[in-house]
Design a protein that fits this description.
Radius of gyration: 25 Å
Distance between the termini: 84 Å
Strand content: 5-15%
Number of strands: 8
Number of helices: 26
Length: 558
């Protein structure tokens, strides 16, 4: 009878949590293109890439294939694998429908993964069901980086499967999880680091128990192999491509020790934009109170998992910060892959660590105070806090998707130019080149972390005078260069100037000869350029649209 009651309670809790997730993602379905979503590393890049890939027949291009629409031939391998199921959502559905579905899929599986993990491995007693469900819900509502998919939010489900196998449970469900997750996540944006952690856990087991546990080892190798198959383009580019690329000039080790220490604590409390956990106001106090209880009652051995996770959480923040310490320079100069691969992303393990710690902290508080309402209040407070981080609230003062991509306005520009888009190249000034890419133009500028180094040098000639005026901008481009943009020293690292802006470009100094040699004919500027003739430009037309946030000044090269 009691078991039936527990099952009923469990189903009710799951239903309520799914209802909360549905409510959270509902603005995406209701508002569609009028929704407000993240721009950084989202609207300014990935969504435009998916449109270029899926609408122009480039999806299955060969390993040496290029995309002529971007920088006169962006390597196809720079935009991910066709085995990534998220790309197929954009192939099958309009942009915002695909985006809404991706958000829903990720959040549902994030909830299920954390629920199963806590229930089967950390909190097996039924009296903790409300803590398990509440923690799983809060984890699923975190404002994760949308293009990461299940790269971090799928880790609880993967850990559940690995821990089952580690204990001798080799069910088909576990194998299915390890097989399917790589098709909806990224190796370099999460699971490389997770699998490395699993490998370390296996080594610790071997040293501790003197047993090899081959099924556990094989399962780690199996998931890694599936990732290699799915991400074959990335593996090929990393191992077999001989052409230097933009990542070869990425230099990260530049911070002095005092800034590294400050960054450690900043990351520990506030987190990182690509793995936002929103844990500083509720979760961190809960874990610190739980730690105080452990210290006061000397429960170190009893609460060993909690203590380990809290310590590991801090170590991950320290690792992230120290990756940028200038003391690494001798090593990065000797071992080039330390610059080209971002090992700082071990901190992508923090969401799963923080939220398991939250559940265990609530368990400790419940054991101490025996007040369900206190635990419920903590969970509800975190749910409402995360609700306030919904994209529709956070980005309400930013352009909507429709306003950002301004399809009607750019169709008018295309019609005004009157030539086939493949016959000329464009670049953008004061707005992201992803907008022109999304609207079908061939662009000389782009935002991408993997493109030929030779092109970076070629493009640099256009903006070299502007870079020489602003040292911060020069370092930004020369020592990273992911944003291959028409930079202006007057604007700095600002890329979005709407039609409400009153700024004018008074001292722009671009080199238009290389621009023309690369096929450049037009510049889309969101700001007026004073004396455009100094840059061998003519103002052709100004485009307005009530459905767009931009006023586009179309400049033609003389």
């Amino acid at each position: 009878m009691e078991q039936k009651m527990n099952k009923k309670i469990e189903r009710i809790l799951i239903f309520l949590c799914m209802l909360a997730i549905a409510l959270y993602v509902s603005p995406l379905y209701i508002l569609n293109e009028n929704a407000h979503i993240r721009i950084h590393d989202n609207l300014d890049s990935n969504l435009a890439w998916y449109k270029v890939l899926t609408e122009n027949g480039y999806l299955f291009s060969g390993l040496d294939g290029t995309l002529p629409k971007i920088i006169n031939g962006l390597p196809r391998n720079a935009l991910g694998s066709e085995w990534n199921l998220q790309i197929w959502l954009y192939y099958w559905f309009p942009t915002m429908s695909a985006y809404a579905l991706s958000q829903s899929i990720t959040r549902v599986f994030a909830f299920l993964g954390m629920f199963l993990l806590l229930k089967d491995h950390f909190m097996k007693e039924r009296k903790y069901l409300f803590i398990i469900a509440g923690t799983a819900l809060t984890f699923a509502l975190t404002p994760f980086w949308p293009q990461g998919m299940l790269s971090t939010l799928g880790m609880p489900l993967a850990l559940w499967a690995f821990l089952n196998i580690r204990k001798g449970n080799h069910s088909w469900r576990c194998i299915a999880v390890l097989t399917l997750l790589p098709f909806y996540s990224s190796f370099v944006l999460g699971f490389f680091f997770f699998l490395a952690a699993m490998g370390i856990l296996w080594i610790v087991d071997v040293m501790k128990d003197k047993k090899w546990n081959f099924p556990f080892l094989v399962s780690i190798g199996y998931m890694t192999l599936v990732f290699f198959i799915v991400e074959y383009r990335l593996i090929y580019s990393f191992l077999f491509s001989s052409e230097p690329n933009s990542r070869d000039e990425y230099f990260h080790a530049r911070l002095p020790l005092w800034r590294v220490i400050r960054l450690t604590f900043k990351n520990f409390v506030l987190g990182h934009t690509h793995v936002m956990t929103v844990h500083g106001l509720i979760i961190l106090p809960v874990t610190l109170i739980a730690l105080y209880i452990i210290i006061r009652k000397r429960k170190w051995k009893l609460e060993k998992p909690f203590v380990f996770l809290l310590s590991f959480n801090f170590c991950l923040s320290a690792w992230y910060a120290f990756w940028f310490y200038k003391g690494w320079l001798p090593l990065t100069e000797r071992f080039h892959f330390l610059d080209t691969f971002n090992f700082a992303r071990f901190h992508f393990l923090r969401p799963i660590v923080i939220y398991i710690g939250f559940a265990l902290g609530l368990k400790i508080l419940y054991s101490e105070f025996r007040r369900k309402w206190v635990i419920g209040a903590c969970i509800l407070a975190q749910v409402f806090l995360l609700g306030s981080f919904n994209d529709e609230i956070i980005y309400q003062n930013k352009p909507s998707v429709k306003e950002f991509y301004a399809e009607e306005q750019f169709a008018e520009i295309k019609k005004h130019i009157g030539m086939p888009v493949e016959d000329y190249r464009v670049a953008s000034l004061g707005l992201h080149p992803a907008i022109a890419q999304y609207n079908g133009f061939y662009t000389l500028d782009t935002y991408n972390n993997f493109y030929p180094l030779s092109y970076k040098y070629q493009f640099r000639q256009i903006i070299e005078k502007e870079l020489s005026k602003n040292n911060r901008l020069r370092i930004y481009f020369d020592e990273w260069g992911g944003r291959c943009y028409l930079f202006s020293s007057e604007l700095g690292k600002r890329y979005m100037f709407t039609k409400n802006s009153t700024i004018k470009l008074k001292d722009l100094d671009l080199n238009m000869e290389p621009f023309k040699k690369m096929g450049g004919r037009y510049i889309f500027s969101s700001l007026p350029i004073e004396h455009p003739e100094k840059n061998h430009l003519i103002l052709d037309h100004v485009f307005h649209s009530h459905e767009s946030v931009w006023r586009i000044y179309l400049y033609k090269v003389k």
